[in-house]
């Protein structure tokens, strides 16, 4: 489904919209609550949820040796159901080694480079999506609890500025849709809060798995703005802000979306 024409039609409905209170929703709502009952059932079914194919592939990669060290993720971290439980709710996090905020994808690639002697996996590659989905899935059901102190607080403020910045030919910000018009419709689709507790997600529109940054880029293109590169610091900062907005929502990875 192409939302660009729908968003263009929505411009007339989004008149006179300004910056809004920057506080997160007092009771954030997962994108799950905006789905049809059929899609909710698909996400809930462990045999039918297509995203679990990526989780299964991630489990295989977790045990697969790579790089000059000939070591696997499991060789360092052991049983992921124990060592990775609780990781997803606190990412993105500050990396002392890199001196900047990183998301789970960035931490996986940092481990590959520094610990395994392997090449970083390309963003949006099947292997990186699979490992990210597998690691995140270990925290399914846990509430997001992103701490925003020190460098994380600075990153959050940059992400907040991005979220409220109007951009593109349609001159719309993230907030114009995901705060000001939550529950309204673009064509037949209800507008969600744009929470990120289910990523990576299986999206029917893409017919595949996609990362948070792919979703950011899709939204930028929908308002006819030039998207940033996946993995860029601009999108990392936006991801920090989005995760902070999601604090309290439980991890749903792998979620299913339209």
From TrEMBL:
Entry keyword annotation includes Metal-binding: yes
EC annotation from Swiss-Prot or TrEMBL: 2.8.5.2
Subcellular localization(s) per the UniProt record: Periplasm
Domain called Cytochrome c: residue spans: 53-139
Keyword Coiled coil assigned: no
InterPro entries the record matches: Cyt_c-like_dom (IPR009056), Cyt_c-like_dom_sf (IPR036909), SoxA (IPR025710)
Main subcellular location of this protein, as a coarse class: periplasm
Alphabetically ordered keywords of this record: Electron transport, Heme, Iron, Metal-binding, Periplasm, Signal, Transferase, Transport
Family that this chain belongs to: Belongs to the SoxA family.
Protein name: SoxAX cytochrome complex subunit A
Species in which this protein is naturally found: Devosia rhizoryzae
Upper taxonomic lineage: Bacteria, Pseudomonadati, Pseudomonadota, Alphaproteobacteria, Hyphomicrobiales
């Amino acid at each position: 489904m192409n939302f660009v024409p729908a968003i263009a039609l929505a411009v007339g409905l989004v008149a006179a919209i300004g910056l809004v209170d920057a506080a997160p929703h007092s009771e954030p709502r997962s994108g799950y609550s905006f789905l049809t009952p059929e899609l909710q059932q698909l996400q809930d079914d462990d045999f039918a949820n297509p995203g679990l194919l990526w989780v299964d592939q991630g489990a295989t990669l977790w045990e697969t040796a790579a790089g000059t060290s000939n070591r696997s993720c499991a060789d360092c971290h052991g049983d992921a159901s124990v060592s990775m439980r609780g990781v997803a709710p606190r990412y993105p996090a500050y990396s002392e080694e890199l001196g900047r905020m990183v998301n789970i994808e960035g931490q996986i690639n940092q481990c590959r480079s520094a610990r395994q002697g392997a090449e970083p996996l390309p963003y949006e590659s099947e292997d990186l999506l699979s490992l990210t989905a597998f690691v995140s899935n270990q925290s399914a059901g846990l509430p997001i609890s992103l701490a925003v102190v020190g460098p994380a607080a600075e990153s959050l403020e940059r992400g907040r500025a991005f979220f409220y910045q109007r951009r593109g030919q349609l001159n719309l910000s993230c907030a114009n849709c995901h705060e000001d018009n939550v529950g309204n419709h673009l064509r037949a689709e209800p507008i969600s809060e744009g929470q990120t507790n289910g990523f990576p997600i299986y999206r029917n529109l893409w017919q595949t798995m996609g990362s948070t940054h792919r979703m950011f880029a899709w939204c930028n293109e929908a308002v006819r703005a030039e998207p940033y590169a996946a993995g860029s610091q601009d999108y990392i900062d936006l991801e920090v802000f989005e995760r902070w907005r999601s604090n309290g929502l439980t991890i749903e990875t792998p979620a299913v979306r339209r």
